[in-house]
Amino acid sequence: MTRPGNRPPSAAEQKLAASLAGAVDLSGLKSRAEAQRGAAAAGRAPGQPGGGGAPGAGASRVEVDEATFEQEVLVRSTQVPVVIELVSQRAPTALTALLAALADEANGAWVHATVDVDLAPGIAQALQARAVPSVFAVAGGRPIADFEGEQPEEALRQWLDAVLRATEGKLSGPVPDTDDPEAEDEADPELDAAEEALSEGDLVTAEERFSALVETRPADHTIVEALRYVQAGRRVSEETDTAEGSVPAALRSADLMLVAAEYDSAFSVLTDAIRVHFGDDRQILRTRLLEILEALPADDPRVLVARRELASALY
Fold first, then answer.
1. Distance between CA atoms of 247 and 286, rounded to whole angstroms?
2. How far is the CA of 221 from the CAs of 110, 224, 227, 261, 293, in angstroms?
3. What is the pTM (predicted TM-score) of this model?
4. Potential cystine with 306: which of 43, 154, 215, 267 (Cβ 3.0-4.6 Å)?
5. Domains of the chain, each with CATH number or no CATH
């Protein structure tokens, strides 16, 4: 979700960011991170060697371990792309210094996150890395591009340019430096209230508040997406088992996929159901599909594909 001004990400934003990590299973990392934070708070040494990650030099670089992965990668990648470099102190490479220099040059357009695989093996395992160095670009909590091994500077610049083009206009942008005296604190009490309800698990109130926000900001896709997320979560929590092949079963499957940010799968379930149902049932399915499509920009490739499939299913 977009966070205006210089406020830190809320718990609701972290939930939404984590839900977008559908490409890899990061749930284990989150559990271990919470355990490490609890151990640190109790004055005990974390279970992983090396403890929490220490911030790197400047806002464009950061060192990450399992305890800081959620905040420094998942949440931060809702703002700008995060380029994760898996490294090992036993085998340093020139790639690290090159990526660091390019990150500084980019001045916050993307973040260079280094992960020592010897201290945080769970991250390498979750990303299914096969070699060191390996590099992964993460945006919106989801890995979108990767490569292995050393790369010449020109090839690396081209790869980074492609990542920035692919994410242009889809992320909220870098958060202003909180130490900058000129940075403005732009309060957004309505959004704060909606996020607070979501973070507290009050889906009914969260739905009401996000619905009110959508009425006043219909063009803000991040808010529409948050509303659809909340609505799907509420329905999943209230629905019971349904007969296989029925309209309620198709709607429930789509809700489960939407909560997991698996938009393509949700679209497929609904369009497949539209093909075999007619009359009021078809209209119910079509309405739900169009509601979900509203959560994404009109030029999103997933939307274009889904609309073509819907047209084919209807006619």
1. 11
2. 22, 5, 10, 14, 10
3. 0.45
4. 267
5. 11-167 (3.40.30.10), 189-314 (no CATH)
